[in-house]
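Let us begin with a simple case.
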Amino acid sequence: MATTVRWLALPLVLGGSLAVSGCTGFGYISQTYVTQVPQVVTIGCNEPYEIYDNRQRRRVLVVSNALREVTGCDVGQVGNGRPPAETRAARFRTAARTYLDETVREDCRITGETVFSDLQTEFAYACDVPVEPRGTVAPRLPGRRNQR
């Protein structure tokens, strides 16, 4: 049951956010990330973000949820009581940076970003090490089980 829900999570998140944002990037996101297993990164006041990492293309998709984007959360000095829309870019970038750091890629740098909707932003990153061959077992975030 949990595996079925996990397999449906990305298409449901993508479908729901596309209904809000139109069809911008649906085909691209589907082709790039549908086979990726999401990992969760927590920033700020325990704000979880799902991260989909396409290591061959060196891109990560950061996905928030609608409730957080409406209610927000004071993220220390960054949030400072401001509406979530004002801190969205900084929060998503922090989630992407945290993910790279936690997966032993501290030396990688974020080189660009594409905003697909209020719930989805993709970050391109560059690293000095070569791209891993397809099928390489990537390190998981600490304390997360490898589920598929």
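The second case is a distinct protein. As before, the sequence precedes its structure tokens.
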Amino acid sequence: MSSAAPYPPGERYGYPLYIHCGMDQLYEVNGHTWRRFDDGPEVDTGAGEGGSDDWPIAQQAIFGFVTLVEDDLIKYSIAGGEVIATYVPTNAEPEVCM
């Protein structure tokens, strides 16, 4: 979802969420970095924390979907529609993870 055309609100798009260092941010969705603001489950494969058995995790990514609910709110869901994280845009520099 980098510099492609912006995604309109209400539509769901496949988006692999790389979770080596956790689920705290999404990169380059509609030109923004997004920061998680809910207190839902956390997964960090670099620390050995796995997700729920029903989450579509392969290697170091969750293969789910982003839905731009409003210009300032993204919901991240898995195939069955369960929302597992919510995000808001941020002006902060993206965190670098090694």
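Strands lie at 12-18, 25-29, 32-36, 57-58, 61-70, 73-77, 83-90. The longest strand covers residues 61-70.
Keep these points in mind for the review questions at the end of the chapter.
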